[in-house]
Amino acid sequence: MAVSSLFRTCPDTGLPVHLPAQNLIRANAVAAVVALLVGGVQGLMVALTRWPDVQLLPADWFYLVLTGHGMNVLLFWIIFFEVALLYFTSAILLKSRLATPRIGWLAFGLMVVGAVLANIAVLQGDSSVMFTSYVPMRAAPHFYLGIILFAVGALVACFIFFGTLVIAKEEKTYEGSIPLVTFGAMTAAIIAVFTIASGAIILIPTLLWSVGLIGNIDPVMYKVIWWAMGHSSQQINVSAHVAVWYAIAAMLLGAKPLSEKVSRMAFLMYILFLQLASAHHLLVEPGLSSNWKIFNTSYAMYLAVVGSMIHGLSVPGAVEAAMRRRGFTKGVFEWLRKAPWGNPAFSAMFTSLIYFGFLGGISGVVMGAEQINIIMHNTVYVPGHFHATVVAGTTLAFMGITYLVVPLIFQREIILPRLAKWQPYIFGIGVAGISVFMMGAGTLGVARRHWDIGFTDATLPFNYPDSAFLLMALNGMAGVLAAVGGFLFIGIVVGSILFGKRRDTASVKSNPIIGIGGGTAVSSYGSEGTLKLPGTMVLVAIFFTAFFLYYWVNWKYLSEVWPLS
Amino acid sequence: MAIFPPEQRIWWKQPLHGVEIAWIGICLVWAVVMFFTMIVWHVVGEQNLSNEAYRIQPDVYQERTEAMVAQYQVREEGSTGIPVVHPPAGTDIYMMARLWEWWPILELEKDKTYRLHLSSIDWQHGFSLQPTNINIQVHPGYEMVVTLKPNKSGEFGVVCNEYCGIGHHTMAGRIYVVE
Question: Any alpha helices (H) in B45-175, and if so which ranges?
């Protein structure tokens, strides 16, 4: 092990904390929150513009801000945070030193420069090409360059994570296998390498094309490869936030996976199959065969979906088993009623699980069925779906673990604890509203990325049904609520880091982060001694029924449109 | 605990929970059902996207569209000057996407079949036929041929739902379906 002065002992967990790793985690987490603030303000402006009676921004600003919104929250907020998570789950959880912290700062620098450069390009106004930047629409060269620099930085961070795994193994900082949470983070990092390589393969030629060195980029090929980055990066998020669910349940409740084998297999399915999802964006494109579409859109027969459904059982199952071990055994749901709902880390984690499964997961699979996509492609159903996965799922889970990271890594108490208690609910309900209302409007055909669904300036105006306007107004209101929740989060976190009480041994006793039972071995694996999990069985039964019904309802909708072949 | 290494080193030999085994079984069966539903729909369903597509030069596509308009134009739409075309049932019809219009307006007959050729002569666009709700991506350089059969009469809007620059929200076309 390296020089011991580079380590401090965590008063909460007794774990040795590598200080250079801690600094890098802090820097990446702060950059993430800054990106969330910028992207969040932009998101609020988008929601208010799409509220037909408000229509906040003029058209050119709307498309500019929408481009920035996608980039800042989907790319910069999430990936900065994921880099922090990679360092946390490797160096901290494995009690190891972080590989090459200096290169870690280089990676961080590249990511910051890239993010700033891309934001400048967007704000200059000639790169309002949307986050997806489909060719042959052209952005300024430094738009592509910024994203490439950011991606290179993130790639370097992934290799620092892998390097840290090697060091921890070599230096025997842990016994046996790596923890499940680290395994989940490793899944995310492996998918990230594939994702970033795909991004480089398409964005480097596109950069050359934008400066005139390449004559033509095929638009269909661009989409196939771009989405190997664009969609796979969402699978990084899924792996990362599932790992976060396990981590929060473990830290607060001492929850163990019901079975290591099943949970790890489920993560493995992500690595093997998730990257096929590029096809989800190509189901109504010319030039790709139905065979290709069916195989890829279903992740080779829905095997990655099976992975997520397994986590959907094993995460609440682990919580139920842990709570039952602590004596909450009455009835079917005492464990759930008596769960720590007042702890923002827990409430964020559990509601993230519910929203991701019920709203994001089901809608994603339905929309990804080859033919059903015909009635949903590029409608606001699509952003409705991914706000449930990436915002109510990933972002909410990341907010949850931030309430643990601030005391553990920044060593500060959370300020305004009563407000913090409410924050995940306000944000979560707002985002769930955004998702549901956009999916509703999308079912009525409303186009995404559209400034004026009233078609005021169109030569041949078209009228969407009145209910579509109502749903977009409700979406605007839900957007305001989500923004309030988001800004509360940023305020609480930044306030805690700057002005929170320093965490010392006394506060560790009075306000423990690691919950009762966290760490004490009651049994050797999650399901031992608690063979019955009736609550979780009821939850997954409700989930499956909802999934089943919603799936077939959409085939019914499809069967009513004009026959086409 | 999930944040520590598994307590049993040989974790892969731990017995599985009965609920887990049952759930994995249900998930796998459901996965197979959903997979084969897509295949079965190609046989029994009436809404499947065409696999017929060609590479085409934008100017060639534009010429063909203009030829159809010249041959089958029946009137102009109000004062807009946009041609309304009534091609015979069963023929090849064209709706060209360009910044920022769908051109021309088509007039089709209910329950008759048409071969609709979709392409763009500049950027990508999204063919979104409303309120029936059919959405197809339109690329420059590619021509997709969709066999369509309108099953309701009336006025249908064609919205562009792929962002195509500052005039995107004004890009709307029209299809009339007559008895």
Answer: 58-72
- Which ranges of A326-460 does DSSP label H, i.e. alpha helix? 334-337, 344-355, 362-367, 381-386, 396-409, 417-443
Q: What phi and psi, each to the nearest 5 degrees, are found at residue B84?
A: -105, 130
- Tokens for A39, please give them: 């992207």
Confidence class for position A522, pLDDT limits 50, 70, 90: very low
Task: Please report the ipTM that was assigned to this predicted complex.
Answer: 0.95
A463: tokens are 């009228």
Is A286–B11 a contact, with Cβ atoms under 8 angstroms apart?
Answer: no
Average pLDDT over residues A419-435: 97
Interface contact A442, partner B, CB < 8 A: no
3 state DSSP class of B166:
coil
Using CB atoms, pick whichever of B9, B28, B142 lies closest to residue A220.
B142
Q: Which of A268, A302, A296 is nearest to A280 (CA)?
A: A296
**Phi/psi at A197 (5° precision):** -60, -45
Spatial separation of the C-alpha atoms in residues A390 and A354, rounded to whole Å: 13
Question: Span A297-315, mean pLDDT?
Answer: 91
Beta carbons of A287 and B165 less than 8 Å apart? no
Q: With bands split at pLDDT 50, 70 and 90, how would you rate the model's confidence at A498? A: very high
Q: Domain B53-178 class? A: mainly beta
* Inter-chain CB proximity B5 and A527 less than 8 Å: no
Which of A431, A36, A88, A74 minimizes the C-alpha distance to A232? A74
Mean pLDDT over each residue of chain A, to the nearest integer: 93
B166 closest CB neighbour out of A60, A130, A551: A60
Map tokens 């030569």 to a residue: A459
B150: nearest CB among A137, A449, A562:
A562
What distance, in Å, lies between the first and last C-alpha atoms of chain B?
68
Contact B26 A544 (CB under 8 A): yes
Chain B CB contacts of A242 under 8 Å are: none
Inter-chain CB proximity B5 and A537 less than 8 Å: no
d(CA A389, CA B153): 39
HSE-up of residue A270 (Cα within 13 Å, Cβ side) = 34
Alpha-carbon span B122 to A305, nearest angstrom: 37
**A177: closest CA of chain B, how far (Å):** 6
Report whether pLDDT(B4) > 70.
Answer: yes
The reply to whether A60 touches chain B by the CB within 8 Å rule is yes
Q: Which tokens in the block code for residue A36?
A: 């969330």
- Give the Cβ contact number of residue A190 at 10 Å: 19
Q: What is the phi/psi pair of residue B146, to 5°?
A: -110, 130
Measured CA to CA in angstroms, residue A121 lies from A71, A146, B37, B128 at distances of 12, 8, 45, 31
Please, what is the Cα angle at A52 between A49 and A57, to 5 degrees? 25
- A111 SS3 class: helix
Whether A313 and chain B come into contact, CB under 8 Å, resolves to: yes
- Which of A179, A452, A559 shows the shortest C-beta gap to B5? A179
* A306 has a chain B CB within 8 A of its CB: yes
Token pair of A357 as six digits: 């499964």
Is A294 within 8 Å of chain B by CB? yes
CB contact under 8 A, B37 and A317: no
- pTM across the whole model: 0.95
DSSP lists the bridge partners of residue B109 as B178
Q: Does A227 touch chain B (CB under 8 A)?
A: no
